[in-house]
User: Fold this.
Amino acid sequence: MSKVLKTLNDALKRRSWSRDRDSSKPLVSNMISQLNELMDGDSITQTCHCLNSTDHCGTDPETQAQDSEDEGQRVLSILSNVLLGDLRSQELKQAAEQVKQWAKVNGITPEGKEGSYSQNWLREYLNIVEMSVDKHFPALPPEGSRDSQLQTGEYLKLALSLVWSEVIGLVPVLENSRLLSYLIDSYNRRLFAVLDLFVDRSSSVKEVSILLVWVKQTYFSHGFTGSPNIQDHVLRVSDPMLLTDWFEKSKQRFLTLLQKHISTVLQNILLYSEAHLDCRNEEDLIKVYLDVIQCLDAALQGSKIISETLMTAVKSLCYNELHTFVERYVSDEKKQLEAQKSNETYSFHLFRILDTCKHLRSYCFNIVDSNNDTNSPIVMMLGNMETHVSSIVRQWFAGLAEDHLKKYFKEKDVHIYKLMDMIKNVLAPLPLREQGERTKQHIVNAAYQSVTSAYLQCLMQRKCKQLERRWGDVNKRMMRDAELFHSTFTQLSISDDEQKNFLLKMSEILKYNDINYLKVSSAELYRDFPEESEEHLPALLKWKRGLSKRQMKEIMDMSQEACQNGEHITPCHLKYWSCCLCCT
Assistant:
């Protein structure tokens, strides 16, 4: 418009300069021609744009600033209606167009780079956003309700649906103006404020797990609404510390509640174990270790669903809690064994301790540091307890066997059969199931070793002449008894022929008097049964009679030397050794 006025003014001046012209017709014609040139083409568009622009062409800076501020307030009013009101589709379209036009000027720098809105205007806009979030965000469920876990899950589902629908509905108005990011950020911050409150409210591991799983699935997967693009834009936080701080707080809360839960469960298991010493049914025999493993496994599997890193922390926690449990369990069981007298449930108690230690020691390798598994205090404590209980088993059966075997060698044969019947009555009721088969086999083998050892001791307490007068061939009686023992113990559990072969080889010592053959037989005994031979062979050589001290020393020296050198005895070796021994 200023160009139009300037043109008119110039035309008037030229009229004064052309005094020799009498008519005004050429002047009017010239003005009209120049106006047509100005109004032709894009000139009208540029002029109208100047008239409607927020720059207000031709106005002074103060007026222009005031007009810009008024226009900003008008846009804030539009945004307030959009964010706080319930506008129809057509009204949203109109609002979107007005905000878009205004944002083109106020949100872009003169150089064409993306700029920022004025701080005062942006502050007012953010206040409107907060009021919108306050208005539309669902109210929190009541604290401490009975169905708090269900309510939390339903609330989060509702909140997520609302955030998505609100943001997506406002995309046409706010997206191109870059104002949408402020709304998204505000909703996500509110969401994490609520999640933070839920963490503080949580009183169980399951409640925190629900929150952790929900955040993981919501912010770290593309499953929501089937559209990864929508989730990527709507469900995000501008400040990464908001997410990391919440996860760290939730992790610590999770571990604190989990430690308390595991400690309580394991304490109750100990109390149950102390109250059910005289247990016979299989459920009570396996309950201690089964409950412990189920408790720790549930914690590990639950944390694995959330995070592998969290599971590593839970592994350490489970190990520490198991360590505390095993310390108390071993201490309590040792006290109980010292106070308990052998009765009809004694074997069940010993079985339960051994079975529990074996299973817990095996499970411990799942949670112990792989670089230090063999030196783990838990593994060592449980292993020592197994050794302690095995020693008790051997002592117990040795005492039972000794009472009957003394009478057997002194009085009547019937006492050895009474011993076998008693052993069957004690060991047969022990469960022979897949999980406890190794434990029962361990106890049966320990009993077998004790009976074999007691047999030899009681044998040598009687004079060889007395037994020869009673039985004739003591060697054959020993062979028969070895078969009886083996038959009895193999009926109770899967057993190898070790103890049977030991007794048979010991009977061969009584069968032969040839010094060279005794040397070879003794060497084979030391090779196959070093501990048992060291305990019983010297006494048996002395008991059989007919050997001098020098001969017994030669037999023992050669047997021990052959055992130390690891020489394998075969029939060929026997002939070779016999020749060598004859030459010496």
